Structures are given as C-alpha cells and as structure tokens.
Amino acid sequence: MIVLRHCQSEFNRLFTATRKDPGIADPPLSEKGEKQAEELVQALVGEGIRHIIVSPYTRALQTAEPIARALNITPTINPLIRERAAFSCDIGSPPAALALNWPELDFSGLDEMWWSSAIESPEAVEERAALFRAEMAASPMWRDTLVVSHWAFLLAFTRSSVENGSWFRLDPTVPPAIS
C-alpha cells in the first residue's frame, strides 16, 4: 500500500510560522498544498493504485481529489484514519457539509460528529492504527491502495514522521518497527 500525508493545510502553514494554534476547524489546503496535491498526480499515476482510502477531513479529501480524478477512482471515506484530536484543525465537518463539496463521495457511514470531541491519547491513536493495520493486512486490496491520512495517525501506523505531501510504500502485514 501507499501511505500519504495530506498536503499543506492552512493550519499547517500558520502553525509552522507561529507555533500557535490558529483556531481553524477542518482547514482547507493552503495554496502551496493545492500545488502539492496536483504534483502528486504525476508522482502517483504510474504506481498501480486501484483503491483510495481517505480520512474525512477537508485537507485529506482535497489531497486525494486530483489523484482520484486522474485515476478515475471514487475514494472510500474512513474515519478510522483521522488525525489525533489535539488542535482546532482536528474538529471535522458534518457529513452533510462534506457532501455539499464532494457530492460524488459516500459520507453515509459517518456519524454526525465522527471526530473526537476531546483530546485523544496517543494510546487511543495507536489502537486505531492497529485496527486499521489489521483490516488492511486481511484485505487482498492492500497492495494497490493509496491511504491519505495525517501526521499523528501515520506516526502511530508507520512509526515514521511524515511531512505534508510525502508518501511511501508500506506492507501492513509486517508490524512497524518499535522506535
């Protein structure tokens, strides 16, 4: 499978500059992030992707959108791979609001409030990552799947800190190295 951290969001842009939470719930991609997402099409189009699994946050959906369009794939929404709830950007949007922006996607499996209302412990994110790893390892489609997720989730899932717009291959049947 290929794991991809969403491209730069407005939250990432402002937080990187100030190291302060800018108070943006479910932020969109920044201008740089939009360019990164378009550039990913060239990088990923020849990688044999047949399935895309994406977090329901706007920044992840916007990252997946040009790749899905180029490959003619309808992404699957999975809240299990959402970001760890810790900042304002980790407040999501209700399914009806997401469906207005992405009418072709199926948000019917999401609860009205699919994100965590409280700060999540690292252990809770580890549990979600282990569950997703088990699901993917049991699925015959993992080899040709792109997963678009977030920093803290991917840290728990891969044991690697992944930069915005960065991707790499991962075998979910092999446990991550303990750091």
TrEMBL record:
| Pfam families cross-referenced by the UniProt entry | His_Phos_1
Q: Which GO terms describe its cellular component?
A: cytoplasm
User: What species is given as this protein's source?
Assistant: Acetobacter aceti NBRC 14818
| Protein name in UniProt | Phosphoglycerate mutase
Q: Which GO terms describe its molecular function?
A: phosphatase activity
Gene3D superfamilies documented for this protein? Phosphoglycerate mutase-like (3.40.50.1240)
